[in-house]
Each structure stands twice: as structure tokens, then as C-alpha cells.
Amino acid sequence: MKTEDDYAVTDMLALKSELQSWCRELGFQKVGITDIDLSIAEQRLSDWLTAKFHGSMDYMQRHGSKRSRPDELVPGTIRIISVRMNYLPEAQEQAIERLDDGKSAYISRYALGRDYHKVLKGRLRALARRIEKRIGDFGYRVFVDSAPVLEKAIAEKAGLGWVGKHTNVIDRTTGSWFFVGELYTDIPLPTDKAEVSHCGSCRACIDVCPTEAIVAPYSLDARRCISYLTIENKGAIPVEFRKAIGNRIYGCDDCQLFCPWNKFAKPTAEDDFAPRHNLGTAKMVDLFSWDEATWLTRTEGSAIRRIGYERWLRNIAVALGNAKSSPDVIAVLESRSKHDSDMVREHVEWAIQQHRTMETTDV
Question: CA-CA distances (angstroms) from residue 284 to 241, 246, 256, 299, 305?
Fold first, then answer.
């Protein structure tokens, strides 16, 4: 890492202007720069961890203060370049149709295309190379949701948007359907003005959450969140949340789908985020029929890979248990009733029991 004196002859305002232009060329919709004082966010994180809202995500407290003190994670860091890339693959109305379709599987829109980690990291590295070509060697490190980094607090402080009551970052002009990434650096660039909240008295996200995971404005209990339950959670899905999961087999978008600020959101032009293998409209019975080899092939390069095949079946079993009863649904569930995994069998048994209960009720 260099010191500020090493950059004394560099016109930082001019460099920042060039940097903004490069970001647009690389497909980022917005870029902001912040210093490394995250003391307010550090206290919020501490309170959240104390409340045990992180559930089994032990990594949230594993690195001590490195998450909220960037210069401890990457010594020499004095600025953070925060970027935003929109990912909404289709009009929101289409996503809501999928959510309301009792036969379709709902996958969080961010996971329908190519793994965002790879896309953003590649573009951020390209940005670093352009800076390097302009000023020579400099200290930096790229992050995209892959290290102890408070990316939402950084994005808010860099002016990319504000952290809404659902704890996602919102932009006034385009809503919240975007990824963020960071470039930690030792370049003393001019900083941007932090964004402030514009949620006002609105509580749409709080009221629409299927599992009441947003326990207070700006406070999310991950243990209740469907995204946590279907992705981060490695064990059985608690029975008390299974009905509320509906047909959501990977993540949940409700708090974004019904946020008033997302009326400004537009589908992305980024081909990498277009749905693959018809995952945006796939039927639950079809996805549950995939063997592991098929699953590995059709999730290659996807963020979905992180949950593994066993949890994939676990999640779909729950969704099928919530589906309208039909011979196809019963048959595909019974085909997995003797699966090698105890966890898969337990969720399949639960799902079959739901349909038995439906039959009894209908009589």
C-alpha cells in the first residue's frame, strides 16, 4: 500500500471523473466513494449479533472488528470505491405472477442468471487495471459479498442509496434490484455524500414479509427470513415456517416486489443476469425430478450451487407440500420418500402429510 504523499502529484478530481466514466463503460450503473469510518454501522452490527439475529451465520462475528474497520482487513486502506449493478431480469409483474402460480417454483430473481460474484469481481478487476494503467501500481483489493465487509453500510455512505426498513439498499431512481461490490484502496480520492433514508412512514416490506422476519424498521431477524431458511440454513427448515414459505425454493423477494420505490425499477440489459434453463418459469415437479447430475449441469456458474443438491430437494419438498394437491405432485414426492438423506426424507414426509390432510379436509 502507498501513502497519501505518494499520490501528491495526481489530480484526484480528474481521476475520480475518469473512474466514473470507466465504471459506466464496464456496466456499473452507479459508483460512489467513501472513507473508512463505519463506526455507526459497527454498533448496529454489534446490537444485531447480540440479539442472535444472525442465526447459524457464525461468520458474521468470526472476524472481530475487521468487518467494520476496513484498514484492519486490508492495511493501508483509506477509501472504498462502491459500485452498483442492476440485475432485475424481468418486469416485476412477471415475478409476482410466478409467486402467485401454485405450480411454478419461485427462485429469487438475483439467482436466475450467472453468479453475480463472478460478474462483479471481473468488472471490478477490470476497473483496477484501468486505474493502474492511469497512475501506476496502487494498493487495492476487490470484494463482492465474499469477505467480512459491511457492503450495505458502505454503499449507503458512498451515496449509492439508503438501507431501507427491509435492510436492502434502495436508490430513489431505480429501486433496490441491484448488486454492490467494493474496491478497497489506498488512493486518497474525494468522497461522496452519504444517502439518507427516504422510507418515511411506509411499512410495506414489514407487512408483506411472509414470516414476519422484519421485526422492527431496519431490523431483520435472519432466523425467520425465507432467504436464510432456504439458503444459509443447513439443517431442517423449522416446521412453523414451512407453510409461509409457499413456493419459494431459493430465497425470497417479497420485501422488494412490494416496495413502492421499485415502481421505478427496470429490467437489466446485462445478459449475464438473464434466466438460465428456464428457471424463471420452471414447474416444481420438474425441478424436483432432476437427478444430481442434471442439477449440477443446470446450476453450473449459478449462485444456486452454494446450497448443494440435498438442500435443493429439501426446499422443493416444502414448496410441493404447499402446492395444490394433484397426482403429479403426490407421485413426485413419493419418488423421493426413500431418499438416502434423512433431511430430504423428513421434508418429503411432511409434504406428503400436508396432502393427506388436504384430502381429509376436502371429504
Answer: 19, 11, 23, 16, 18
pLDDT tens column, 167-179 = 999 999 999 999 9
CA 78 from centre of chain: 27
| CA angle, 136 then 139 then 143, to 5° | 125
Q: Are 176 and 263 in contact (CB under 8 A)?
A: no
Nearest-angstrom CA–CA distance, 148 and 92 = 31
Torsion of CA 220, 223, 225, 228, to 10 degrees: 120
Catalytic site residue from 6, 145, 286, 328: 145
Concerning whether 145 is annotated as a catalytic residue, the answer is yes
What's the pTM? 0.94
What confidence tens digit (pLDDT) does each residue in 38-72 have? Answer: 999 999 999 999 999 999 999 999 988 999 999 99
Sequence-ordered list of residues with C-beta below 8 angstroms from that of 94, at least 6 positions apart, any chain: 280
Rounded Cα distance between 20 and 193, Å, is 15
Nearest C-alpha neighbor of 301 from the set 117, 120, 27: 117
Residue 329, judged by CB atoms within 10 A of its CB (0-12, 13-18, 19+), counts as buried
Residue 243: C-alpha distances to residues 168, 176, 223, 240, 257 (Å): 25, 27, 16, 7, 20
